[in-house]
Design a protein that fits this description.
By secondary structure, this protein is an alpha+beta fold. The chain is built from 18 helices and 18 strands. The chain folds into three domains: about 240 residues, BirA Bifunctional Protein, domain 2, CATH 3.30.930.10; about 190 residues; about 140 residues, Threonyl-tRNA Synthetase, Chain A, domain 2. Helix 3 runs parallel beside helix 4, helix 10 packs antiparallel against helix 12 and helix 12 runs antiparallel to helix 13.
Length: about 600
Amino acid sequence: MTANELRRKYIEFFVKQCGHKEISSASIIPENDPTVLFTTAGMHPLVPYFVGEPHPAGKRLTDVQKCVRTDDIDEVGDMTHCTFFEMLGNWSLGDYFKKEAIEFSYNFLTLPDEKGGLGFDIKNLAFSCFAGDSDAPRDDEAANAWKSFGISDERIAFLPKKNNWWGPAGKTGPCGPDTEMFYWTGEGSAPKKFDPDDANWVEIWNDVFMKYNKTAEGKYEPLAQTNVDTGMGFERTFAILQGKKSCFETELFTDAMTKLRILANYEKTESNLKSERIILDHLRAVTFIMGDNLGVTPSNVDQGYIVRRLARRAIRHGKILGINENFTDKIAEIFIEVYGDYYTELQKNRERILSELQKEEEKFANTIVRGEREFQRILPEVFEKKLDTIPGDVAFNLYETYGFPIELIEELAKEKSLKVDRKLFDEEYKKHQDMSRAGALQKFAGGLADHSEEVRKLHTATHLLNKALRQILGDHVYQKGSNITAERLRFDFSHPQKVTPEELAKIEAIVNEQIKANLPIHFEEMTVDEAKNKGAIGVFDAKYGDKVKVYFMGDFSKEICGGPHANNTGDLKSFKILKEEAVASGIRRIKAVIG
């Protein structure tokens, strides 16, 4: 089975046999969701619909969602960790619940190929369910549903919240217990009893049963609408179907691996294999992030910082493998070919991906030159004090200030018969990580997931701002992302140069005129073509499927959007731009408040 065949088989099973509507993958860059830097799970783009917002495609949905998770960047290099991955998902928005969801999952896993399933042997499957605690009871309902298909008690494990509970996208919101599905990948027959700690049991799918809403006080209250949110790991399942131990051995990576080995000159040691996997994982992720229609380019802030970090880590491991020429664009080009038929935005944005990677490699080369120069400057003091070790805080300053990788610092130190105090460096690095993580959590906390009144109003203001920007600056302006908290909005848009104070004053005045006009706000459902014919703007239409929601603010603004919004523009009271700045090449940012 090829990768495209697995994607289509999953979608067709849920469309034809289970009555779902297919929707396209949402952007990797979250729309109006400040809880995360990237779309980290299939559920994130659908949060408004879990709390009652009607979805244009109905109550049963299925998709293949592009995802990026950055918590484990330092773990990448083993056989399993991936920064970018695809999630196969099916969704119930207030429709079916546990019994049906588990039946769908069981059938897709075990039905033979000719009946639309994967044909997995039941002897190789095991399952886990929520063990229960003071917040919610043990999930015997899910366990009994599995048992109805002949699954023995010994193949079902009851595990605590850390294993079998899916929390809200932010600090508050929809959540609930889940049941997880495992496949035996070890040698010989699967053990009679399921041991969740045995790494040969690989988790491939989970069904989340959203029946609670976590409040700001940490309480779990029943949701008015119960939902099912499922996610099947595409790469893991594909590797199993191909009989491979790792996705790095499948067609998703083999062409890029071949190209890398042609470019490099190294022995196949375990250390070098780790570098291979880091390079391929990171450059695949960068290709998808920059190739997204809302794609970001390398920078020192937010998503752009992650792109830069991934690209430069790949470049550094290329040097370890002996690659002394620019190579990242050559590897990215192969990923565009491998994935471009399914994810056509990669072909569309090909030039941007390749040119930005070329520029980043050149910039990093300059960083290394500058870092080496600064390294030479610290040597006299080290020798003067007759030290045999470069202090960890000095090494960390080279890393933090000049972006000079610790491995290169250690390499240069070794040439001078010196060591580096790696223990102190690691302590400083951990402090830096903790501060960055705390800053990110603070920066990306709250937002549309809670649907508060202030967030609705600020979300409404982005529509008025978007239209006003296009009126003053031109139709080349498109939204490139937003970040909304209860205090302020942040709006990124395409524009090649700084917006002048005079232009900002006109934009602000237009928005305030529309607020003063107290325009009514309503939405209509229609096809994408109908929306375009009505003059609606929006770059997020891909995730809505056959029909989209168009929000009208009087006759002033018509925009494709999932919601939620204020009832009329007068609710905003007033609008004030606080700041306008650049965030990346051709991308500007406005921060503003209302009221």
